[in-house]
Amino acid sequence: MPKYMLTFVGSDDWYDKQSKEELDKAYRPIMKWWDDLSKTGVITGGEELGLQRNATSVKRVNGAMQVIDGPFIESKETVGGFALIEVADLDKAIAIAKSWPGGDVEVRPIVEH
Amino acid sequence: MAAVFHEEAGRLTAALVKRLGDFDLAEECVQDALVAALEHWPRTGIPENPGAWLMTTAHRKGIDRLRRETRYREKVAQLEEIPMTPTSPMPDERLELIFTCCHPALAREAQLALTLRSVAGLTTAEIARAFLQSEATVAQRLVRAKRKIVDAKIPFRVPEGHELPDRVSEVLAVLYLMFNEGYLATGARGAMDRDLASEAEWLTSLLARLMPDEPEVLGLLALMRFNLARADARFDESGDLVLLRDQDRSKWDRKLIDETFLLVGRYLRMRSAGPYQLQALIAGAHADAKSWETTRWPEILRSYDALLKLGDTPVVRLNRAIALWHVEGPEVALAEVDALSAALDGYHLFHATRAELLRALGRTADARAADGRALELTENPAERALLKQRLARHSR
To answer: Which of B103, B152, B155 is the closest to A109 by Cβ?
Structure first.
């Protein structure tokens, strides 16, 4: 069965602005979505990512690996998490992405070697 | 023979793509088969069942090509699934092919190019000429789209249930854009080129055959045909654009207009209104009128009102204002148009329409200013010529 990665948009700004109650409320449908799809075997893996401002990049500069504070590309919208799914085709993957209770989603096929 | 190719190229491609899951190989086989037909048929005549002849040939050529493949056996087995006696009816999976080519995960330009290539059987060079683009650009676009179909596993099937309406709209949007690319183009293309407007009409009529119960498909087909019926009157001897109001109506294709009304009757009986059906009703009311003055404006206005209910956009309101002018007078229409200025200030037809209304109200200086603004905003040579002419005619 074809595999896809769904990448979910996230934003440090948004996260910072939510109260504890608001966060709980926002996460409830997401948890349910995740549980339901995991039980049916659609989601085979995935994680939520920590804030972008806590990212560290390791870059190859003139052949040496250099450690730098921050993400690859600084931006307001960033990757907030990802899910690995297994479905029949792109239409099915898009249907799953549309049912995501959060924000924007990128759907990418996974290369199988 | 051209008509046979038109029908069969897409059918062959669809059958091969479905079994092989490989657009490139499918297209190569189809191309080989068509070349073979070009060599044989002039001598032997067109065979009884040209589709089966072409399929047999494509199949043989496919096996030749597959010998070089590592997954030879697997792919040959996939090919064998296609029925292939000289009399067997050929499968028609072009509907699946159309939905795959117009999949929303592909960019609009890729959808256009791929549909023309795979379903209508145009060559890359023909597509490039039709869009006034380089062949390399179009080839690159096709390669990328085909790769995405395979890598992202865009399915080869007709969408079902609740997915279908959106996907049909997507296909119709591709076909309508293709039609307009051709219809609005102005003599920049050579006479030899297969023109996009008639390709789009052909593809839409194919879709109407494959999905006879979709009223919007019939609506778009009717809209295209009413427009095509007026094509000969759209330009004068010197190649300048002639507006609907000033067209020589004796040059309109009466027969095509009459036939198209039968199509309108068919979709009206389905009782499910949609934007293309309504636009075709408007085009039909124009096609049916003896003159601009005797046009059934109240009927056109009603169609525009119905269109607004489906989607209230400034451009629909602008077009509706023309009908409003003829039903309720230029003052009412101008008030309506002026209310759109914030949304449409950068749109040349907003200013051109305003100019006409101002002129009808005797405000010639304001009309000239509006025409001037319209001229600044369009680069289309035919429209520019028309506006310049209007400015010259009304200058003191």
So the answer is: B152
Residue of B nearest to A90 (CA): B154
What pTM does this model have? 0.86
- Domain range for A56 is 3-109
Q: What local confidence, expressed as pLDDT, does residue B238 receive?
A: 79
pLDDT of residue A112: 87
- Nearest by CB to B154, from A90, A95, A108: name it: A90
Residues of chain B under the 50 pLDDT cut? 186-192
* β-strands A43-48, A105-109 pairing: unpaired
Q: What is the pLDDT of residues A12-36, one digit of tens each?
A: 999 999 999 999 999 999 999 999 9
Strand A64-69 relative to strand A56-61, pairing: antiparallel
Interchain CB distance below 8 Å, B105 and A94: yes
Contact B159 A94 (CB under 8 A): no
User: Which residues in B lie closer than 8 A to residue A88 (C-beta atoms)?
Assistant: 155
CATH of the domain at A28: 3.30.70.1060
- A109/B155 CB distance under 8 A: no
State how far residue A107 is from chain B, nearest Cα, in angstroms. 9
Mean pLDDT, chain A, integer: 94
Closest CA in chain A for residue B147: A109
pLDDT at residue number B66: 79
Nearest CA in chain B to A87: B153
- If one counts the domains in chain A, the total is 1
| Spatial distance between the Cα atoms of B173 and B167, rounded to a whole number of angstroms | 10
Domains in chain B with CATH codes? 1-92 (no CATH), 296-396 (1.25.40.10)
Terminal-residue alpha carbon distance, chain A: 14
- ipTM score over 0.85, yes or no: no
pLDDT at B181: 84
